[in-house]
Specification:
By secondary structure, the chain is of the alpha/beta class. The protein is built from 6 helices and 8 strands; from the N terminus they run E-H-E-E-H-E-H-E-E-E-H-E-H-H. Strands 1, 2, 3, 4, 5, 6, 7 and 8 form an 8-stranded mixed beta sheet that branches. It starts with 5 loop residues before the first strand and ends in a 6-residue tail after the last helix.
Length: 203
């Protein structure tokens, strides 16, 4: 565990494609998706913040910090903003609550990188992973400007601040199958995640 960086778990989404709250899903029949990821983050960071739209979830440790959306209905950018506001450290690791296979070794590698950025995010080909990234609290003024202009996409922040990217080669050292970026957004992806956990996945 490190006290150098805070961790923010985004759990304020509406789960429209899933049809039910993703945070409460149980992939292994025991821990909820939210609890499983929160436990992994607690092994990495001294401060874990759960950013939501006001919802509360049972089963989390008492030392979890809750951050309610400052602007309701603002999506992941508002969730990031709300979490960064209460982060104790200058940088915060940010992950989404629908990523069951986050990789602790990859996250620790990201944390250990020189902090010469406002955002550090993995990039594979043309795809950026904004919800598996590190953000500096210095991003807050830029986020405020975006929100004031009605711009709510987290990726729009990338044009406003200094960004560094992890290369595919760096990612492959720790996660060659890039499972860390797997999202459970639909019932089909839920079944795929369960197959991976149960060892039935053939890919």
């Amino acid at each position: 565990m490190t006290d150098e960086i805070s961790a923010i778990l985004l759990a304020g989404g509406r789960s429209r494609r899933m049809g039910r709250d993703k945070a409460g899903l149980k992939l292994d029949g025991q821990l909820t998706l939210l609890r499983s990821i929160a436990d992994k983050l607690k092994a990495i960071s001294h401060q874990v913040i759960v950013s939501t739209d006001g919802r509360r979830y049972e089963g989390l440790d008492d030392d979890i910090i809750w951050a309610d959306d400052v602007y309701p209905g603002g999506g992941s950018l508002v969730g990031l903003y709300s979490g960064l506001r209460v982060a104790e450290r200058d940088y915060a690791l940010v992950v989404a609550c629908d990523m069951p296979f986050i990789n602790a070794d990859l996250l620790r590698y990201m944390i250990a990188r020189p902090r010469d950025y406002d955002i550090l995010a993995p990039k594979t080909g043309d795809k950026i992973e904004p919800l598996h990234a590190i953000y500096a609290k210095r991003c807050l003024p830029a986020i405020e400007k975006l929100l004031a202009a009605g711009r709510k996409k987290i990726i729009e922040l990338y044009a406003e601040v200094k960004v560094r990217y992890l290369t595919p080669e760096e990612i492959d050292r720790y996660d060659p199958r890039h499972r860390a970026f797997f999202n459970v957004n639909t019932p089909e992806e839920l079944q795929e995640a369960k197959a991976i956990i149960e060892g039935r996945d053939k890919t």
